[in-house]
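Table S4 entry, Aspartate ammonia-lyase.
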Amino acid sequence: MDTLNQYRMENDALGNIMIPSSAYYGPQTQRAVENFPISGIRLPRSFIRTQGIIKASAASANMQLGMLSPEIGKAIIQASEEVIEGKWDMHFVVDVYQAGAGTSQNMNANEVIAKRASEIIGHAQQVHPNDDVNMSQSTNDTFPSALNIATVEAIVQNLLPALLGLYQELQKKADQFMPVLKAGRTHLHDGVPIRLGQEFSGFAATIHAVYLQLEKQLDGLYEIGLGGNAIGTRINLQPEYIPKVIQEVCNRTKLPFRKPANIFAFMQNMNEPIRCMLTLKELAIHLIKITSDLRLLSSGPRTGLAEITLPPVQPGSTIMPGKVNPAILEMTHMVCCQIIGYETAIATAGMASQLEINVMMPVIAHTLLHSIDLLANTIQILITKCISGIQADEEVCKKWMQESLSLITGLSPKLGYDMASQIGLKADEENKTIQQVLQEKGLLTAEISNAIDPNGMV
């Protein structure tokens, strides 16, 4: 094998370096590959896509301002659009855990687009990754802008529709189960009666509240700091560049991005990703609560609560034949544990903002975008393979409700708290229902019977 023909020699400010012949990236990307063989994890397709959007938008703005020739500018736009489409994803090779702030990631995009643009021109004129593709830009303004754009698109296109679907499915179950009376529980012990539909309406409203919160949070993410350049001072920039490049981004995304209220605050901090991740953490906490409740309500089927049944999706044991576990709910819980851990990672990385920039942006980008994808995918599976197929066991619900000692609560206004407590304790000690003890004591009048009727307690 002729290994020499598999590589080409290129150079940068640090000297010569060998690069695979087929690679569209250049020396700075190759150095990052060699310096950071850490995880094998790359920034996701959604981020690479937004890098392409920014490079195409910048080239268009620079052409309009006479900074780029039409030949080079159009070639850069075509190459960038190919990046947007995903044609060159295999050449975006820098590890997530890379040099601070994402300089290597930005140069990966610059080098790939420059080489492809040079091909489009026909190599008659080489397109320079820094002078041409990165014109009017810096890693420090393009990276956080790309993250905000990718985050908004992922939320709008994937997570919000998934959350809306979950809310609607839970609300549908709430309506379906509203006639079903059952025992409520506090501290995992008997509580006063509740409708199964009321329980599910609580689940639905909780998810809807997060949906509205996330929708509202988009407003802050619409701020992108293109044109801030290195530290927000807009060095080497024509004044008309910023409105033009942001308008180009808006045209390509069909979303209302705008310049930040304060460019220096945007450059210095990861405020919006941190806030967004906090909302995802809250969503994870709520999903853990809801899925844990559903696991309890479906526990059994013979030795648990068994008030609802879940659709069976796969065998649950390698040793116990016929066992079926709440697999989808368990998977959801696991994902949510990961999300809660991810929030800590972003919070810690957010603390690394020093002076003019945050150098931990690559890990923040990976963590946030992965979290959105995880939650969107999980929620879709939760809806289709679990929530939509849940059924109520009305007989079991009725049995537990009739045996609940909390029915005694209805007697407090009639017999007083102390007398009612004595009746409840006697029922518990003798393993009898409240109704049986009242009958034995000669207290089961029509009025008392109505007082412990579950229908009157919901």
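The chain has three domains: 3-135, 141-395, 404-456.
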